[in-house]
Specification:
This protein has 15 helices and no strands. It is mostly helical. It has one domain (4-92, 117-328): Na+/H+ antiporter like fold (Up-down Bundle), CATH 1.20.1530. The mean pLDDT is 84.
Length: 330
């Protein structure tokens, strides 16, 4: 049965931290979230990974988490591509249903706007990659605890992060126009400190540390979780686009509903049940990652569509989390 008290304990700090970040992002100079982002990227998040990995249960089956992440990316890409083909076919038919004169929603509006290649690229990216780091970490820690945090970290570092700057780069280059930056993003992946701290954390798991250092590492890791949510709110305060609402909702339905549902019911066939199953479903259900905005800007994709899906997805996660807990809580 779903633990409503646990969910309430998550939502109160989640809304408080993100809401505070949103307010600070509106009143503080843009350089503040920029510097906070740099700090979290280079120091904060790697530190939290080191801290939480020391308490995580890393059984042999935990390596299935990144495999599942790649499956989720493939599902999102496939379903997004199928939708684009349906939309394209409908626009070619131009049936009378698309000309409703009484002001009611038309089938055209339900299908979304006709998308040009840059918009198609942004749409596909939004169906593939989730915010499994800045948002996925704190949500997973609150709902499943530190014991199974290894599943979350493996899903993010070897799944979401790796695929977004490999498959994501190829896809963005295909639909965009800035081919010269591909090598830059590939180098950025190799220089990602979260990836390196992940391997370092695995190597240091069995190394004994003095109690004060261990406690300080644990406290610092939780502090980083709060700062990550604060930064998320600051970034959301800078997203002002309101275009492509119908198209964004379709992409979010694929990313945050259909894909995690398929993953959740398919995991038992891989031998993953109980809390690890919930941990993976939560990661698969995260809203689109900010990496999609990085790729959209680097390859001249549709920034308006990207920021619309980011903003809406970050709100919808509050509505979808109870569903996953109800369906997949052990």
């Amino acid at each position: 049965m779903m633990d409503w008290l646990q969910l309430t304990k998550l939502y109160i700090p989640l809304i408080a931290w993100v809401g505070s970040g949103w307010w600070l992002g509106r009143v503080l100079p843009p350089v503040i979230p920029y510097r906070l982002g740099k700090f979290l990227f280079w120091i904060g998040v790697p530190l939290s990974i080191l801290g939480f990995l020391r308490q995580a249960d890393l059984s042999a089956s935990v390596w299935l988490a990144p495999i599942t992440a790649w499956i989720a990316v493939g599902l999102g890409l496939s379903l997004g591509w199928i939708w684009l083909q349906i939309q394209s076919g409908w626009q070619e038919l131009q049936t009378p249903l698309s000309h409703n004169r009484d002001g009611k929603p038309t089938l055209d509006r339900l299908l979304g706007q006709t998308l040009m290649p840059p918009s198609q690229g942004s749409f596909l990216l939004s169906t593939m990659f989730g915010n499994t780091g800045y948002l996925g970490y704190p949500i997973a820690l609150a709902l499943i605890g530190t014991q199974y945090f290894g599943w979350t970290v493996f899903y993010d570092t070897l799944g979401s992060a790796l695929s977004s700057y490999s498959v994501g780069v190829v896809l963005a280059a295909q639909f965009g126009s800035q081919m010269r930056r591909s090598i830059h993003l590939a180098v950025a992946l190799l220089k990602n400190p979260a990836l390196w701290s992940f391997w370092l954390g695995l190597g240091l798991r069995n190394v004994s540390l003095p109690p004060p250092i261990e406690q300080g590492l644990h406290a610092g890791a939780w502090t980083i979780v709060g700062l990550s949510l604060l930064l998320l709110g600051m970034r959301l305060s800078q997203l002002t686009s309101q275009r492509y609402l119908a198209t964004a909702m379709i992409g979010l339905m694929i990313k945050m509903a259909i894909v995690p549902l398929l993953i959740g019911f398919g995991l038992p066939y891989l031998g993953i049940t109980g809390t690890p199953r919930l941990a993976i479903v939560i990661q698969a259900a995260m809203p689109p990652a900010f990496a999609t905005l990085v790729l959209a800007e680097a390859y001249d994709l549709d920034r308006d569509l990207t920021v619309t899906t980011l903003a809406l997805g970050s709100l919808l996660i509050l509505l979808t989390l109870p569903i996953w807990l109800l369906l997949f809580s052990p």
